[in-house]
Amino acid sequence: MTEERHVHIVDDEDAVRRSIAFMLRTSGFTVTTWNSGVAFLQGARSAEAGCVLLDIRMPDMDGLEVQHELARRGIAMPVIVLTGHGDIATAVKAMRQGAVDFLEKPFERAALLAALERGFTLLVDHDAALTDAHDAGIRIAALTPRERDVLHGLVRGHPNKTIAFDLGISPRTVEVHRAHVMTKLEVQSLSEALRLAFAAGWKAD
Q: Which domains are assigned to the chain?
């Protein structure tokens, strides 16, 4: 882990930028704030390497477009997607594009710091992705066939009702299987489950 850990906050709301920046600076991070995705992309090539906290809903370019453009330009800074309008489909797309995590505002400080720890591990440890893939494969192997079916539905961005219809079971049964999936994968959120699935090589189609 590097001694100085830099975080880029990309959000069009000034109050949000100031609030997160204060939280992170008091937690020992150095911070640069950007008021739009366009501004960040203009400075990203020469910006200090670090993790990116990227808001979804922004004018001109939304967070997913900025994330895609970073990848296209070969700028390999770990991205944590932030949104106040989260839904499963958006989470799937963000994670499929390589986001470290997906956090819905208002988020817990501990959840943000944990996501940043994963991001900085990826930034400094080139073997971390391989380790993640191996660990993900082991955890997913513990799922029953039906639990894997439910996880596949989540990976496709489907809500519980759609998964239930596709599998010919009740939404309540999907909820039970989904709870078992979360327990066996040892995750606390949908974004963590998606991260494991994509690390293991699962596709959305």
A: 6-125 (3.40.50.2300), 129-199 (1.10.10.10)
